Amino acid sequence: MNLRQLEVFQAVMQTGNMSAAARLICITPSAVSKTIAHTELQLGYKLFTRGKGALAPTPEARVLFEESTLIHQKLDGLKRIAVNLRQSAGGQVRLAAIPSVSHEFLPLVLEKHMARYPRVRVEVRTLHQDQMVQALLTRSVDFALGFYEHPHPLLTSATLVSGPLYLAVTRDIWQRAVKARRQNPMSFLASMPLIRLVGEDPMCQSIDELARHLGLSAPAGLQVQTSRLALELVKRGMGWTVVDFLTASNLDLQSLTAVPLHDFAQAPLQMYFATSTPPGQDAQRMLEMLPELLHNVMASTH
User: Fold this and answer.
1) SS3 category, 122
2) How far apart are CA 55 and CA 8, in angstroms?
3) Whole-prediction pTM value?
């Protein structure tokens, strides 16, 4: 089967009839029918049985469909790369960032970048760590930002800055903790629920490490997907959580307290890119702005 036959075959398998397959890949139904008939003639067996207005795949077709799906996905990925390379040529930066970076830091970056490079278009995607691989490898984005090194072998990670982690809790609860246990107020939180981040987010490990430090061997409590939601629950007095230095810099200090965790390893803010295709000139200009902006944010947190 050549690539054209594969595309037509996949379309028919996905849609279940010739007309829908033709619309999917933008050719005529007669072209679909002729391609399938020619493919069956070459292979020497039927791929579909024709019923009343419907096509039913043969057992051989089901085997071919399963084996060829990965090839078809690779071709789709190649098409996306080709389109994305054209879009990235000249005057455009496309980046992705985890939610805490997107919400707490990127507005400042975009404001400064637009003032300096008003004619450069910028496209921002908010993704979780596990979603960044496809975006980077298909060139949907030029680079991505997140905490901790990315484990994927085809990505390069570079540290922009490292900053402390913070315990986030309501001011009222922290004041009670200091009053009750002046020598070790953090131990006061051992009796309170912790609010974790769900999934493979590296911040989960930091939250669990603090929980173990407080004597919670099997921490219970709520699990949410973003630090913003965790903080909303903290504001309601439902527990405590751990946040990065960017999130801590934007806390509502009238209701929340950020306690630096000096005994814990700092969180490195990383820039990721596909090793085979480093960021271009426009993206590099934006990246050059980040260290100074990050240090300013960190200085304002202390």
Assistant:
1) strand
2) 14
3) 0.68
